[in-house]
Amino acid sequence: MVPVPRFATWDAFNADLEAQCRKRQSVVLRGQSETIGERLARDLEAMSDLPAAPFDACDQATGRVSSQALVRYKTNDYSVPVAYGHRDVWIRGYVDEVVIGSGGEGEPQCRHRFETHGERPSSAMP
């Protein structure tokens, strides 16, 4: 079995993945005549430009703040400032945090980051 990698943060995990990918760019795979880097460059030339507006890769939901200043998202309750009690809120669930806000697309009122405590980050929300 392959050992499960462990990282303290998502940034450390992503940095390690990027380093491994860059290291392999000079490798020629069996049955190919070009290196991985050369094939990547050719693929990048054929790709379209990124859209002008960035894509917010998250699960979006709405909720309502309870009288105890809690918002339910999936199976968990998240605390928000008491001043937002009984308000409708928007919720964005990212891989590493839940962001809760109220009103238009303004500043979020609350962020809850997930800590990995040295465990391997999971690609699924808890």
UniProtKB/TrEMBL annotation:
Family annotation (Pfam families): Mu-transpos_C_2
InterPro entries noted in UniProt: IstA-like_C
Domain Transposase for insertion sequence element IS21-like C-terminal: 50-105
Region annotation Disordered: where it falls in the sequence: 103-126
Biased composition (Basic and acidic residues): 108-120
Name this polypeptide is given: Transposase for insertion sequence element IS21-like C-terminal domain-containing protein
Annotated source species: Pseudoponticoccus marisrubri
Lineage of source species: Bacteria, Pseudomonadati, Pseudomonadota, Alphaproteobacteria, Rhodobacterales
